[in-house]
Structures are given as structure tokens and as C-alpha cells.
Specification:
The chain is α/β, with parallel strands linked by helices. It is built from eleven helices and nine strands.
Length: about 325
Amino acid sequence: MNAILPLYQISDFPPIRRGRLETLQVNLGYRCNQKCLHCHVNAGPDRREMMERQTVDLIVAYLCSSGTKKLDLTGGAPELNPHFRELVDKACGIGVHVIDRCNLTILEEPGQEDLAEFLTEHQVEVTASMPCYLQENVDRQRGKGVFQKSIHALQRLNQLGYGRDGSGWLLNLVYNPLGPLLPPPQKMLEEDYRKQLGERYGIVFNHLYTFANMPINRFGTMLVSNGEFSNYMKLLREGHREGNLDSVMCRSLVSIDWQGYVYDCDFNQMLGLPLAIEGKTRLHLTELTGMNIEGFSIAVWDHCYGCTAGQGSSCGGALH
């Protein structure tokens, strides 16, 4: 990140402000059983940053006091946090809808043999990384053997009811390009995924979300190393659509890091760019309680063009 940060200091990205808070996105830690090339978190097996029990309790308390009804859990692999299941259980117990941003292979890790059943029991929405329906492309981006493990995990989730119409168990897949390109049209690609995964492996799912790769951390470093950073930023800037500003995820979401500090989004978290509030360098979740942040300015740098270029990109896929 140190090599990339100076490239973001000056930006002409349009100013935007917050709307009503709808989603609490929580990064439970940067540890992951994978080390993907596109990862903006720089997650991997050697990372040790993990949210502690005290901060997890603060998350539950904030959900209760704020009335926020959607909890979006991410990482790393959020399931590797030892308090993951307790947090899910308590959130569901107070009527909060939980989303697990799952890399799929975690379902095959030792000690996680009953994870799929746990997610099913709590009716957790699974949003799963699946950057392609071809083995070669997935393994090249995410590691050898990841594709087959992902297919097995999806088939297992399908057996438990995930992805089937009317079942109530939502299974969404996430696509991101292999390199410094914008994603293709989401609707057309979703049709391709349904055909290929259905015919080859009998897999069904609810939605496909297309994400643009963020030029941050591992992916950003790769762009710099290959001499492609400037061209990719030019692609994002030239692809900017003003209409996407109305729907960017930071208008209705806040991101909480593993220590409990508050950011406008997960990307700003990775850049150390905290939620802006007068008189504070950064805001902790304990200070957010009871505060109405609707109308607050959102901290923006040039990476924000990654969310507004082309069809747009958010935690819920394309915006346009």
C-alpha cells in the first residue's frame, strides 16, 4: 500500500454525502486461507489481525441501539474469526439479516466441516467469490485447486437448499475481471454463468454480482509492478458515470475494521481513510452510537472511480 498511497492524495472525484444508514459492514480480520491476486485487503494465511470478543460485543450492541437491520460480514475469510458464529447467532436473534462474504473454499477447511449447516440453520445470505466458470481462470487468480473446491462447496450449498427458487436461502456469486479491465454487462454474464455452471455441474444460484477490481493493496501493487497503474486509473476515470453516484454503497453503508474503527467503505478502510467528522482524525464504533451521520460528507479519493465507472460497482454488484 505504501507505494500506492501517494498516487491517491489529490483527487477531483465529485463530492458526495451520506444517506440513511442501512448496512453495517464488518471486517472480522485479514486472515484468509487464500491469497488471491486481486485482493484489495492483502488478506492471506499469515495475517494476524482479528477482531476480538469485546469489539464483537460492541457490534451487537450497536445493531440493537441503531436498529440497523443488515450485517455484512467480510474479511479475509470472516469465518476464521473465532467469534464469527456467536456474532451471527446473536445478530439473527435480534432480527438482523446477515450476509457472509464467503470464499467457498473455507467450507472445505479443517474445523469448518459443519459451517454450511450452520449458515443454513441461521438462513445467512451467502455471497460467494467465483470470478469465472472456467477452472484455468479461477486457479490462475485464486490459487491451484481453488476451482474444484469452490464447485464442491457450491454443490453442497445447493443440496442444503441454497440458490433454489423460493427456498429462502440466498446464494449470490461474485465475478471480478482477471486483469485491469471493467466487468462485462452483469445481466449477460449472469446468463452465461447459469448456463455453464448449470450444464457442467448442476449448480444453481440467485444472483451474479460483477465487481471492478480496486487498485489497492495486492491488485494495486501488481498494477504498479506491471506499469499498468496509470492506464487503469485512466480507464476508471474515463468510464465514470455521474448517474452512478446516486447508488454507490457508501451512501447507505459504514465499514467497521477489526479494531472497531469506522470508515465510509471497505476500500477506504484499506487506505486508512476514515469516516470524516469535524474535530476527529478517526471515529470508533463506541462514538458512532447515538450519532446520526445522514448528510455527512464521504471521504473520496481517485479509487472511488472504481465504483462509478461503466455500469458501476458495489457490494450488490452493478449499479447501472
